[in-house]
Amino acid sequence: MKTFSAVLVLLAVGGSAGGSDLSREDAAAALRKAAGFFRTQVSAEGGYLWRYSSDLARREGEGRATATMAWVQPPGTPTVGGAFLTAWELTGDEFYLDAARETAMALVRGQLRSGGWDYRIEFDPRERPAWAYRVDEPREDRRDRQRNIATLDDDTTQAAVRFLMRVDQALEFRDETIHESARYALRSLLKVQYPNGAWPQRFSEPPDPGKHPVLKASYPDSWPRTWPDENYRDYYTFNDNAIADTIDLMFEAAEIYGRDEYRTAAGKAGDFILLAQMPEPQPAWAQQYDAEMHPTWARRFEPAAVTGGESQGVLRTLLGLYRRTGQQKYLAPIPAALDYLKRSRRADGRLARFYELQTNRPLYFTRAYELTYDDGDLPTHYAFVVDSRLDSIEKEYERLKAAGPQTLARDAARETAGNRQADGVRLTSSLTAAARQAVDGLDERGAWVEPGRLRSHGDDDSTREIIDTRTFVKHVET
pTM above the 0.85 mark? Predict the structure, then answer.
């Protein structure tokens, strides 16, 4: 088993600090009470959602949910399970490892035959036949109608696999069910990786290599100015960090399982990023590409364009690839992209999410979803203007370009999620105050209740106090 050299000073101090009378015993008792409440009262068979009304009568993930549902998409089931696992790593209390194992088994029950996960898991036996869950016997009468589409959107499948791998490692790879589920998912991700190294947004089966030639990105002769309403799930997708999250997952899998095939897959995806850089006059990246490597539409507010949003994430990914591999080719695209994006900043210093192909005019949408050059009537649910992080990206690029092998090795260790050290944690006054606030904020059940609404339940919903999984995770780690 990998040894986590974690020394959490807060839990090693029995007396007061920073003017607080919070003791190790107080912290430990509050932690156990909160985790126990989540396991016994909030959980749906080991799985979790995003938000709950304070009385647990109403629930939601990204959408409305029932008491028999769990959400995979963060901050759902893998996120809560990760908090349990962190609690075990830092305290050594087997209660939290048991909780993490319980959550891992909920994810096992939600894994699709495609190898990945949908946004949510259904545990109601009457509803489960609608999905092609691996652990359930195939229903011949429903085989063609069962949902078997896994998603890489919003770190959904990646988060599930990442958590399963961490639990597998914590259990010394002895739980065959969890181990096999994680490895099956990784094998599936290798199979659905395109010949050019990209991954799709969603998948159900491996692609036909003959339909996906390895090409460099280029501009289409023309593109539709109205939404074509086409299936975009198979496109090569940077949107919502789909490829970046999968690259990170592959590097972590290589670290945990010691298998070069995962590192190779990550490098192959990095090579796709090089192919996907648009030629002049816009040497950045699109949100998604079709099989001809042309930027293309996805949703009705995501046009064929070069993006000022995802391009910054791609640059961060290239820096990460260089830190982990030392290969100069991953730095090579950065100067031209930075120069182009800096020239493309708006008068307010920010970037448009979308720039028209070749003309580089910023593209926006009206509230009626009409494509326009005017930002005066923007829908509010989506960021059509994004902050510029170019200065910090350029600073990191210059630092890495001048760095030697020792710096790269240190950075690689820092980015390896399996290396979860907490040696640097000090008992500061702010940490003590946050811990005291967390302890004092628990109600008699062990719940952290806060003001809030359940957005998916509509304006008529009476909920004004909620239990939020993000708050739970934050306080557990504190």
Answer: yes
